[in-house]
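Feature request disguised as a bug: please show the residue count (112) next to Transcriptional regulator in the output. Example input:
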Amino acid sequence: MFRTLPSCEKDGLGLPYAVTLIDTAEEEIDETTGEVIGVSVPDMEGLVAAVAMARVLIPTGLLQQEVRFMRDMLNLGSGKMAEILTMTPESYSRWENGNRASGLTSRCAWSS
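Example output, currently without the count:
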C-alpha cells in the first residue's frame, strides 16, 4: 500500500542542499505489519526537471554543484554546455569546478 506524504526532504540529487517535496513522495507501507518499507518518488525525471527550472528562475549566481546539476540534467558534455553559454571550454571548466567566482553567471545567458 502507498501513501502520499504531505512533505518530504530529498537529498542526493547532486545539489548542495535538500529539496522539499510537497504531496509528491510516496511511502510504501507493509499491509500486514503497517510498517514503512520505504519512500520513493514516482517521477524522478520530472522532479529533476522541476528543480532545475525552479533554480534557473532565481536571479542569483549558481553554485558550482548547481552548474554541474544543470549540465547533468540536460545530459550535455562540458564542451557543449560551454558552447550554449557562449563561454570557452576552459572558462566553463573553471566555473563548474569552483575556480571562478559565481558572479560569472551574470554574464552568461541561456540560449535555446
